[in-house]
C-alpha cells in the first residue's frame, strides 16, 4: 500500500524537524544573573539592575518639570505630568468629560 502525503504536511514535518534540532540556550542560573546587593532582587540584565538601584535605593529623580520643578524618576512620568500644564486631556471620556 502506497502512502500519499500532501505538500502542506511535508512542509510542516520539515518545520517540526528544524525546530527539534534547534539548539536553545538555557537561561543563566540565578547566581549568574545581575543581583542587587542591597535587597537581593534578581534582574534579567545590568541596565535594569542599574535603574533599580537609582530609583529604589538612591531615590534619584533625574527628570524635572521646567514649569513647576516637580521631579520624577522616569521620563514617561514627567511626560504624563506635563499634560497637567498643557490642559491637554488625551484620555478624556467623551460622555462624562473625565479622565
Automatic annotation (TrEMBL):
Residues 79-99 are annotated as: Disordered. Keywords: DNA-binding, Metal-binding, Nucleus, Repeat, Transcription, Transcription regulation, Zinc, Zinc-finger. It holds the Pfam family zf-C2H2. Residues 34-62, 63-90 form the C2H2-type domain. Its main location: nucleus. It is found in: Nucleus. PROSITE patterns: ZINC_FINGER_C2H2_1, ZINC_FINGER_C2H2_2. One of its GO terms (cellular component) is nucleus. GO terms for molecular function: DNA-binding transcription factor activity, RNA polymerase II-specific; RNA polymerase II cis-regulatory region sequence-specific DNA binding; zinc ion binding. May be involved in transcriptional regulation. Belongs to the krueppel C2H2-type zinc-finger protein family. This is C2H2-type domain-containing protein.
Amino acid at each position: 500500500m502506497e502512502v500519499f502525503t500532501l505538500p502542506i504536511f511535508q512542509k510542516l514535518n520539515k518545520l517540526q524537524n528544524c525546530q527539534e534540532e534547534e539548539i536553545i540556550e538555557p537561561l543563566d542560573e540565578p547566581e549568574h544573573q545581575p543581583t542587587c546587593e542591597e535587597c537581593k532582587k534578581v534582574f534579567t540584565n545590568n541596565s535594569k539592575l542599574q535603574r533599580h538601584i537609582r530609583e529604589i535605593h538612591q531615590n534619584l529623580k533625574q527628570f524635572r518639570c521646567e514649569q513647576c520643578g516637580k521631579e520624577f524618576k522616569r521620563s514617561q512620568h514627567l511626560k504624563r505630568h506635563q499634560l497637567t500644564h498643557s490642559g491637554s486631556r488625551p484620555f478624556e471620556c467623551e460622555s462624562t468629560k473625565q479622565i
